[in-house]
Design a protein that fits this description.
The structure is a single chain. With 71 residues, the protein is mainly beta. It is built from no helices and 9 strands. It has strands at 2-4, 10-13, 18-20, 27-32, 34-37, 42-44, 49-54, 57-62, 68-70. A hairpin with a 5-residue loop joins β8 and β9. 1% of the residues are buried.
Length: 71
């Protein structure tokens, strides 16, 4: 997958904000030109993955071992 921004865009997880996955093993991806998590915010993914990816272009792929890669 390739995510490219045609215009400026930011993601800010503000103080007191919560993102939770349901159950175990879930994934949370926040992808934008700029990504920030303020003090007092929380992202929870029990036995899962949390990815904060920032850039004009973000590519998601799979390694030869089957693991996710982000560039």
């Amino acid at each position: 997958y390739s995510f490219a921004s045609g215009s400026p865009g930011n993601v800010t997880l503000q103080n007191g904000a919560r993102i939770l996955t349901s159950g175990t093993g879930g994934q949370v991806w926040l992808i934008a030109n700029q990504v920030a998590a303020e003090a007092g915010s929380r992202i929870t993914a029990p036995q899962g993955q949390v990815v904060l990816a920032a850039g004009a272009t973000v590519s998601v792929g799979t390694s030869h071992l089957g693991q996710m890669t982000f560039t």
